[in-house]
Amino acid sequence: MPPVKKRKVAPAAPAAESDAESSPSQPEQPEQPEQPAEQQQDQEKQSKTFKELGIIDQLCESCETMGYKAPTPIQVESIPVALQGRDVIGLAETGSGKTAAFALPILQSLMDKPQPFFGLVLAPTRELAVQISQNFEALGSTLGVRSTVIVGGMDMVSQSIALGKKPHIIVATPGRLLDHLENTKGFSLRQLKYLVMDEADRLLDMDFGPLLDKILKVLPRERNTFLFSATMSSKVESLQRASLSNPVRVAVSTSKYQTVSTLLQSYLFIPQKHKDLYLVYLLTEYSGQSVIIFMRTVHETQRIAFLLRALGLGAIPLHGQLSQSARLGALGKFRSKSRNILVATDVAARGLDIPSVDIVINYDLPSDSPSYVHRVGRTARAGKAGLALSFVSQYDIELWLRIEGALNKKLKQHDCPKDEVMVLGENVAEAQRQAIMEMKSYDEKRGSRGNKFAKGKRSRDQMDQEEG
After folding, report:
1. pTM score of the predicted model
2. How far is CA 276 from CA 249, 270, 336, 459, in A?
3. Which of 5, 14, 28, 104 is the most buried (most CB within 10 A)?
4. Which range marks the domain in which residue 143 is found?
């Protein structure tokens, strides 16, 4: 295969949504660039318009309607290449505008030669698939574009009916798409023109690899393929070689682990047994602000949601063992601000565009540094300020040092008066007892419905629930 052509872009200026890294304790750093020539080039790219990238007027109007004021770096670099009919590998962090980077070229090509099953987008989670489909329909509203979401946890028959209406764009998780390719009569992707694999690194982390191989075998070789990923692991390299033809690689990150300059990060070094107390104290201290609390396990996610509700705090859980309607309902309530506390596993860490998140709390530290970056990336988006607080217990010191090492900076310790925290002890202890009782009832109800993770087809159907 011919060598991959590479382009590298300096990170965006802090005023725009970017992945540039800067220490919170040095606010003047962005105003003193070490490489003014590169920054000037970046500013020139930022000043481009969608029309200058080659996007037609109708789609430019859609961008304006959706509030896209100017193209992001990944859009500036990838859209012209995609419009030339080239395969693209896009390396950029979450929140960098990747969806529009692949959606706009596909929609523009669709307008030239409209046909059913024109584009397929593969995503790792159900929520991300729904979000991508909504973006396609919003951007293509003036063109009458029809998009269908094919994910696990939903009725196969209604999805088959939707596929029978021959939509232009299919956004799917791999497991459920393969079910339809194997079992839905009359459904074929032999005429597909565009394939997108979004969050490719996460698709492979979730062991979708064998399913992707099967899907690729039934797709036409004559197609355009876009692969977007936050990192370029050996697995993603293998996927690239198997599915792309002479691609152009576009990278908009200069560092593997970057956080935006408007994000303030700190940690609390506390005993494991007092984490609930400190969590309640922080939520009281930042009352009224929107908060995402990240947990390591589904069980703890549900327990903390019960505990906070017992204390009168409007918390809603989001994890992979909820029904699809419950998951979408939780996201809807949080987005509409009818609930301001979301307790979630890493199913909410990447890809989802949840506006106006003020604070991210890592109740449990993630197992690796990239996951930390993606979690805290839920706040301080599009140039807004945000706060990330991480609980570090006596068992987490080594893991936290690795995260700081990856970020290449030491983070500040959050000042939290212990005597004020301990005052909450009695109320929190009672809420913990209530949460334990509710968890027993919750587990019994789940048990009576049978094992949702049985082997065979149902196991494939459940693969898109969450990472890990």
Report:
1. 0.66
2. 45, 11, 27, 34
3. 104
4. 5-13+32-251
